[in-house]
DNA sequence: TCATTTAGTTGCAATTTGAGATTATCTGGT
DNA sequence: ACCAGATAATCTCAAATTGCAACTAAATGA
């Protein structure tokens, strides 16, 4: 009858839910597609913008260049994407999904739909909408410059 | 004008918000108290249940025993908690917060309050209540046996 | 043509963490 | 009383992850 949390903080609750959901989902994605969520995200980006580049991917995802490089190497090794030299700049290469890559992307998409249904099972459709809306707003907030500044002010106030 | 996410999945949104909030908060907690969130959680547990044991902490937090051991060593090293041998079983030791530990806990508590105010700045009080309620429910769900089983069924259906 | 900048890769080292061995202690059966 | 497990907690070691910085290759521009 233990609740996982009682009066806990919002961040704590967020963390529990995010952590549990992601860990469980990631294992399933890996089992069903051979890819981890992070790789699938890159695959999706490439599939949505064929001919995108290494630098674009690194910029959009925010991953380190070395990490980006390794993820792309994995995807290429699994024959999910191909690289083609740019005709304009031989340092640059363009990324495309293979047929297999497109298939995996679809499998992942459908799986993701089903997993999200399971995750949100205890919520009414109204609650689900509300949650999406609120998280959207919070997501914008926590990634904003204003948020960092608000935190900075708080810290300076405390120690100053 | 880039939104951090558009049509993204719930888990993705959750992850962004949780990750950003936790990373930012953890740095501030460390700066202001010398402890990371994880350590503070253990400190809080001990302060709330004086005389609790290693095994209890490991069970409640779900941390590995080796990790739990290291966290306790840190807290002892920082003089925030003390260990006392159990009179009943010499293998067991009982944990207590020191005066300094209680102080740090209070500092952390107040800081946590303020950080949560900042985090939820863009939400109305009604939305905040709704979010808390929904996350509570989701937290219970994702840590339940039923959730794992629902995922198992989904996977078996897919591959079977 | 040479110096500088840019694209992407790779080697290396720091960090984190978990599994399993290890030590110390307890409990129960004979 | 003694021995054979069980149990509490620690510690060692090895695997995985990741970032930094050095590196190669190609472009740019003076």
From TrEMBL, chains A, B:
Organism: Marivita geojedonensis
Highest taxon listed in the record's lineage: Bacteria
Pfam (any one): MarR_2
Keyword Transcription regulation part of the UniProt annotation: yes
Molecular-function GO terms, alphabetical: DNA binding; DNA-binding transcription factor activity
Keywords: DNA-binding, Transcription, Transcription regulation
Domain HTH marR-type, first and last residues per copy: 7-140
PROSITE patterns: HTH_MARR_2
InterPro entries linked: HTH_MarR-typ, WH-like_DNA-bd_sf, WH_DNA-bd_sf
Name of the molecule in the record: HTH marR-type domain-containing protein
